[in-house]
Amino acid sequence: MHSVQHVGKVIERAYHASGLTIACQDGPAAGQTVPHVHFHLLPRKLAGDPFEGHNDRVYPALEHAEETLPSHLLGIEPKGRSDNGKAEPIKVDADDDRKPRSLEDMEKEASWLKELFNNDEVGSTR
Q1: Which of 12, 17, 86, 120 has the fewest CB atoms within 10 Å around its CB?
Q2: Residue that wins the pLDDT comparison between 106 and 28
Q3: Whole-number Å distance between alpha carbons of 21 and 65
Q4: 38 catalytic per annotation
């Protein structure tokens, strides 16, 4: 949970959010459709948020995203297992419409993220 809080504080700062909606579904009884635990961290704003004034509408939107995730994953799941019984690596076709980012763009993004995490006193172990 410490990691979720740490990343959450950075997300709030990065997106100028007033708060977060944090959702976790752990187990089928909780509505988990993909067999791994993960968290959704949604930056929220008091003004200008897509769910402004109707905060509970975020939950059906999350449920819809969870329901469609398995079908999205089917397109990238391994086709089978190798002779040694291990899963074959996931093969993802290149997206023709996606242009590679330049080294400069990636360095700029990495520096931005590094600075956000380095300046985060909540997650600091100092």
Answers
A1: 86
A2: 106
A3: 15
A4: yes
